[in-house]
């Protein structure tokens, strides 16, 4: 009996003196699969690691729950190997839990109970009327559908729909990359065609906004965001001399004067602020936002290719990196001969460590790490 058991057991040999690593093969239906088991120092199976060949991983794919359960409850390595062999050969373990049952449960979690047949027939009919060329993706449950469209300027957009079991009695959830909420008008008589029509109408209403943002992205050096989405309404634009302007554009009135603030050394940004106040009457909503900014600031926005490295230093003078936790350098030394940029957090930590620095409310006064001239940091929401 014992000899028979040994013949059935997988052939694994210890790989070290402590017998914490075993390696070998397990035979299933005439095929041998490589196997490696790493045990902790206490040799307890519940904390063991199972490593195997990609072929065996493929067989066990989706059934890790049974294997992990058996590993947790097996008293020793030999017992676990016998359980594993039983699972592989019979599709269930000694407790009677079937691998098919686990797979079915997993599938039910991914796909809810199927709706009635008319759900599928009406859905296929709706897609046919809409045009199969507009369909980008549909999952196996027909519960997630992605449709594409182009606006009048040729920009590509995506509409993702999550259909509910009671569709069309219930409105599907809609996901779009818009700067404003996409509210769908829906009745039980509505369909994909009506949602798609509302999607196209929304694209048309946002055309002017995207035209404005595209012109900024194409004709200026946008520092942030690095890869703007269609929903992004803010831009930080380089002005040169380590100065920049941050604007927040209203999607409903994209050519109106945006909320804006200047970032950089005082001797650079103060004159720009004065020009903005003096020339505000020149703002013409009939012109593009970029053209209006040029007129009121009396500048030409430099393109990235035209800016010399000396005109706009990219890296922080303390950590020597550009991006730090998603932030880019936005503090600049006021000394015209220095004008070194810093991340706010870097400059804050630097000044806080100097004995000569002093703080008044949320403002820290200290010395520039580069030129030792006075530098001021106003902390935006940062605790001391």
Separation of termini? 74 Å
Strand order of the largest sheet: 1-2-3-4
Mean pLDDT: 83
Overall shape: flat
Order of helices and strands: HEEEEHHHHHEEEEHHEEEEHHEEHEEE
- Main sheet characteristics: 4 strands, antiparallel
**Helical percent range?**
25-40%
Radius of gyration: 32 Å
> Low-confidence spans: pLDDT under 50, at least 5 residues?
1-8, 96-100
| Estimated structural class | alpha+beta
Number of strands: 17
Query: How many DSSP H or I helices?
Result: 11
The share of residues in extended strands comes to 15-25%
Description of the structure:
This protein is of the alpha+beta class. Helix content is 32%, strand content 22%. It is built from eleven helices and 17 strands. The protein has helices spanning 2-8, 54-60, 64-73, 77-90, 99-110, 117-130, 192-205, 207-219, 266-278, 289-297, 344-352, and strands at residues 11-14, 21-28, 31-38, 49-52, 135-138, 144-150, 156-162, 173-175, 222-224, 234-240, 243-248, 259-263, 331-332, 341-342, 358-360, 363-367, 374-378. A four-stranded antiparallel beta sheet has the order 1-2-3-4. It has a four-stranded antiparallel beta sheet with strand order 5-6-7-8. Helix 3 packs antiparallel against helix 4 (77-90). The longest helix is centred in the N-terminal third of the chain and has 14 residues, at 77-90. The protein is flat. Residues 1-8 and 96-100 have low confidence and may be disordered.
